[in-house]
Design goal:
This protein is α/β, with parallel strands linked by helices. It has a domain at about 5-105 and about 130-250: Ribonuclease Z/Hydroxyacylglutathione hydrolase-like (Metallo-beta-lactamase, Chain A, 4-Layer Sandwich). Helices cover about 35% and strands about 20% of the residues. It is built from 10 helices and 15 strands. A 6-stranded mixed β-sheet has the order 1-2-3-4-5-6. Strands 7-8-9-10-11-12 form a 6-stranded mixed β-sheet, with helices on one face. The protein is globular and about 65 Å long. Bound molecules: zinc ion. Zinc ion binds near residues 170 and 189.
Length: about 325
């Protein structure tokens, strides 16, 4: 991609079907960014790189942009194999460790209550209970120590300065790696070219407002990143035009918020918002992600006082717009 920066793509199951990982030449070793899921095929792909393209030098540092399984899945395995350290932000490391701890546990009542309130059917709740605690299936145990990455910190990699730029909303403290000298940014899931990064509310923080954090982060990235960068995203292909893309993503959320406010002039339960949010019906296999993303938009409007929320007689959240507190998207578009 640039001097000392190499792109590898690993295959994954599921609709995304791949992740992009980055190999950075770093003096007498390699720094790698993100790791793929804990899959036999991914371990085999790493081994063939260690025997081939990367054979001349060891891995000396593993950086993970955030704690989602496709990014940290093999971090523990790689750090153990090369006796090197994992570098992550604190909130990502701690959140990843927390969710690893749920492995094999039963779904807590707080979580099933949240999904009942947000409209899950009995069978959807059963599916959720069965899948709960599966994080550890795709993630090798995390190291017991790590090196903390912080916002605006600089790292020297391969003799060049790289700056950490954190963002919230997709995950708690996602790290992008910006190299001004090479005019590129490793964007992880914070900036993707054609899919909008998932911004979801989870049952651990049911009244959370990750969309507010997401929009603030995206606005801040517009301040930090110049437009002539090559963006290296974790999914799909590298692209240019980071500012155009950030503005498109911000606008897509603004449009969804305005559409929801209009829709909720009549009270609705959450699943009745899916068509407005996604333009299609939502099947059982995507219900959790669609619900999380819809709650993120509803909580944003609710925290701003644009809509009200109450629990109806069926125990479901019912949302309704307040005509006197009109949603005006220009409010925060400065
Ligand atoms: Zn992610």
């Amino acid at each position: 991609m640039a001097p000392g920066v190499w792109w590898v793509r690993f295959v994954m199951p599921g609709p995304l079907n791949h992740i992009n990982l980055w190999l950075l030449e770093d003096g007498d070793g390699w720094t790698i960014v993100d790791t793929c899921l804990n899959l036999d095929s991914a371990k085999a792909q790493w081994e063939s790189l260690f025997d081939g393209f990367m054979a001349s030098k060891p891995v000396k540092r593993v950086i993970c942009t955030h704690m989602h399984p496709d990014h940290i899945g093999l971090a523990g395995w790689l750090c153990a194999r090369f006796s090197c350290d994992l570098h992550m932000t604190q909130a990502e490391f701690l959140t990843g460790s927390l969710i690893m701890g749920y492995t094999g546990e039963q779904a807590p009542e707080a979580a099933t209550t949240f999904y009942h309130r947000t409209g899950f059917s009995c069978s959807q709740l059963d599916n959720y209970r069965q899948r709960f605690g599966s994080f550890g299936q795709f993630v090798t145990p995390l190291p017991h120590k790590y090196q903390r990455l912080s916002d605006r910190q600089t790292l020297s990699i391969g003799g060049r300065y790289w700056e950490i730029v954190t963002g919230e909303g997709h995950s708690p403290e996602h790290a992008c790696l910006y190299c001004p000298a090479l005019r590129l940014v490793i964007a992880g899931d914070q900036i993707l070219p054609r899919i909008t990064p998932n911004v979801s509310v989870f049952p651990t923080e049911p009244d959370g407002n990750p969309l507010e954090a997401w929009l603030a982060s995206s606005t801040r990235l517009l301040d930090v990143l110049p437009d002539d960068l090559l963006v290296l995203p974790a999914h799909q292909a590298p692209f240019t035009g980071v500012r155009v893309r950030l503005n498109q993503i911000i606008d897509s959320h603004r449009l969804a918020l305005a559409n929801l406010y209009d829709l909720l002039m009549e009270p609705k339960v959450l699943p009745e918002c899916f068509y407005c949010m996604f333009g299609r019906e939502i099947g059982d296999e995507e219900i959790q992600m669609a619900t999380g993303e819809t709650v993120a938009h509803l909580n944003y409007l609710w925290h701003r006082g644009n809509i009200g929320r109450q629990v109806n007689t069926g125990g479901r959240y019912e949302y309704q717009s307040d005509p006197a507190a009109r949603y005006i998207d220009a409010d925060w578009a400065q």
